[in-house]
Every structure is written in structure tokens, then in C-alpha cells.
Amino acid sequence: MKGKELLEKAIKMDQHDELASFRDEFYIREKQIYLDGNSLGLLSKRAEKETIKALNSWKEYGIDGWTEGDNPWFTLSESLGEKSAPLIGAYKDEVIVTGSITTNLHQMIASFYHPDDSKNEILADELNFPSDLYAIQSQLELKGYDPQVYLKKIPSEDNQTILLDRIKSSISEKTALILLPSVLYRSGQLLPIKEIVEYAHQFSAVVGFDLAHSIGAVPHNLHKWNVDFAVWCNYKYVNSGPGGTGGLFVHQRHHGKMPGLKGWFGSAKDKQFDMEHSFSPAADAGAYQIGTPHILSSAPLIGSLSIFEEAGIHRLRKKSLQQTDYLLQLIDTLLADHHFKIVTPLKHTERGGHIALEHSAAASICKALKDQMIIPDFRSPNLIRLAPAPLYTTFEELFYSMLELEKIMETKAYEQYQNSRNIIA
């Protein structure tokens, strides 16, 4: 299929896109093509409106905003957890919006890692996001275990993906806890969560997942799959804004257990303001909150999650796969002679929401694209990530972004840029 036919295909797919109207919900810079929604999603008008409403509640009610207004702050984390639950296949009492990925990970590991002489290892993968590994290292050290010995890393065959057989062979009777990403942040590989959990539970290992690169892009069934816990941020595909409040999932079978890190917002609601020095945890996932909710950082989620409720995670996944399929077709057709290597798995069951390309000049290519108002994402040392967001990216935008990339490569325009990352990649 040639360029003209590919453009016609894009126009036709946009005309038949049942999610097309949601693009008008977002603030999109004129002439910009935004392909970095897996790092920071764009602002929606609903998120803006709800943030302004939260400010007005503070202005109007002062301290009474905790119990008054359309979204009382005292129960906001729980109500947002209920709205988040359909995105991950959970019951409403299994989800709470709170903290950040790393603070929530510290809470989960502190709560679920109980080593003894025979079961004391934590298993992660060698491609995991650094902050997740920092949390594991810290929690091991706090319990007197050397991370060099007790943190085991699943090796990668190709430095981009992790094989299920490798994961299974790394699990042993010594494995106490496993922490893996649902989608690998570099390559976009989607791991088989259900199969991993089923196998790991045969060894009585606790299994948790970091959903940062899948929530809002890929449907999950965490309750049905018996995942023990999960954490995520909401500022990528869920579009909650920079530093937006994260979330966590704890399976119902663990409810009633004492959290490893106690904090007053983890209290049972009817006991919290008794101000007793003995901790009475909430009976659900709310027990794993630590500090006072970040109201102004949570407010955008009220609007954003209402969009997801209307769009539906399964329709979003369908369009996401169509867009990444089309992107792969464009890459094969327009960029075949320019030494790009696709490192994202091609199978739908193994692919998250973005496409990753390896190239020796990746950093300078990203800079050249940005100067043409096309926003990709660079990951050191040589990776370009392209993330269509089904709520606001069009197929035609994908066509023109790859057409521009073809031009940049043919003219060698990228050579005028330094091939190194900026302060923020």
C-alpha cells in the first residue's frame, strides 16, 4: 500500500471512528501532533472544570469542603476509586485513589513482604522502571536484607522484552513477592498477567503489578485473575495532569489485614476523628492510604474518569490496537530504508498502547520531530516511543507524523541536532 492509499485509509477510519467526538473534549495545540500520552496525557475540558470546581469549594466552604459540595473531600478518594475500578476489572472496595506509584509501592511491599528464613526473595525484571526497583531495594534494606542477594531480576533475552518461560523459571520456593509491570515502559510489551499469577500462586508468592503503562489503555480483570495488589499513576492515559494522584488495588481476600505503613487516612471512616492512638484500619483498600488526600491533584480525575465511563475501556482498546496496527503499517511502508527496528511485540495480546522504535540517532530524531510540532518520547539510549491516545489522536495525524519522519530521515535533517537527551527526555 502506497502513501496515497495509506492517507485514504486514515481518512476513512477517522470518518468511521465511533470515539471521534471525544477529541473535542481536549485542549490540543494548533498544528501539533501529540504522541506522548503514555508519559503525560493532555488536559480535558472536564478535568479543567472539575479542578476549578474544587478550588471554588475551597473558596466557598473552607474547612466544610470536607463534607459539603458536589464532591466532598472526605470521601473523594473512595468515590474516585469506585470510578477507576472498571478500568482494571476490580470491585469498588478494592480500589483507592491515593499517593503516587512509588509511595504506594512502599506501602504494598511493607504490607505484603514478610520474609522468613526459607521465603525471603523479591522478584522483579531487569527492564523494570528504576523507581520500582528503588522501592524494593529500600524495603529489603529496612528489613535487614541485602538487595544484592535478595532482589532477583528476571533476565531479558533481547534487552526489550521478557519471556513468560523466563518469568516462570525465575520463580522458586524462596520467592516471597513478585513485582512486575503490566506493560514494559520501554518496549510496550504487555505481560500475560493471568498466567503469571496462576503460576506464582503455586509457590505461595504474593504477586503485584505496576499498571502505569496500561491503565486507561488496556482492559484488565485484576479481581478475577487473583492479582494480590497493583499500583499506578493516572497522569498518562488517564489524563489526570502532571503529578496527579495515583491509585492502588488490593484484592478482597486481603482486606482486614493491617497495612505495613499506618496513616490516619487509612482509618475506618467512623473512627478517624476519634483521634485514638490505636489504629483502626478501614475494612477495604482504603486502609492502605497514608496521608491526607491531595484534593487539588485528584480533582481532574473526576472529569477525566467521566470521559472513560462514556467511552468505555473496551472500545478504547479496540481503537488503540487499530491505531498501533496502522502505525506499524506506516513504519513498514515509509521508513523501511531508514534503519528503524520495531521492538514492540506485534501480537495484540502482547502489545500495550505504544510502539517503540530503536535507532542509533533516536535522540536527535526526536528533537527534529518536535521542531515540526510532532511530540514523541525518547528513552535513553536509543528508543523512540510513539503513543497514539484513542481519545484524541486521529489516524490522519498518524499518517502525517510518519510522513514527516520519512522526510526528516531522507533529508538527514536530524543530523543538525545533538544526539543526546535533554534534561527531561
UniProtKB/TrEMBL annotation:
GO molecular function terms attached to this record: kynureninase activity; pyridoxal phosphate binding
Give the enzyme's EC designation: 3.7.1.3
Q: Which reaction does it catalyse?
A: L-kynurenine + H2O = anthranilate + L-alanine + H(+); 3-hydroxy-L-kynurenine + H2O = 3-hydroxyanthranilate + L-alanine + H(+)
Per its UniProt record, what InterPro entries does this chain match? Answer: Kynureninase, PyrdxlP-dep_Trfase, PyrdxlP-dep_Trfase_major, PyrdxlP-dep_Trfase_small
Necessary cofactors: pyridoxal 5'-phosphate
Q: Please tell me where pyridoxal 5'-phosphate binds in this chain.
A: 101-102, 129-132, 210, 213, 235, 264, 292
Please tell me which top-level EC class this enzyme sits in.
Answer: hydrolase
Keywords in alphabetical order:
Hydrolase, Pyridine nucleotide biosynthesis, Pyridoxal phosphate
Q: Per its UniProt record, what SUPFAM superfamilies does this chain match?
A: PLP-dependent transferases (SSF53383)
Residues where N6-(pyridoxal phosphate)lysine occurs? Answer: 236
* Example of a GO cellular component annotation carried by this entry: cytoplasm
Pathway(s) where this gene product acts: Cofactor biosynthesis; NAD(+) biosynthesis; quinolinate from L-kynurenine: step 2/3; Amino-acid degradation; L-kynurenine degradation; L-alanine and anthranilate from L-kynurenine: step 1/1
**GO biological process terms on file:** anthranilate metabolic process; L-kynurenine catabolic process; L-tryptophan catabolic process to kynurenine; NAD+ biosynthetic process; quinolinate biosynthetic process
Annotated function: Catalyzes the cleavage of L-kynurenine (L-Kyn) and L-3-hydroxykynurenine (L-3OHKyn) into anthranilic acid (AA) and 3-hydroxyanthranilic acid (3-OHAA), respectively.
Q: Note the HAMAP family from the entry.
A: Kynureninase
Cite the record's note on assembly.
Homodimer.
Family, as annotated: Belongs to the kynureninase family.
Q: What is this protein called?
A: Kynureninase
**Protein species of origin:** Jeotgalibacillus campisalis
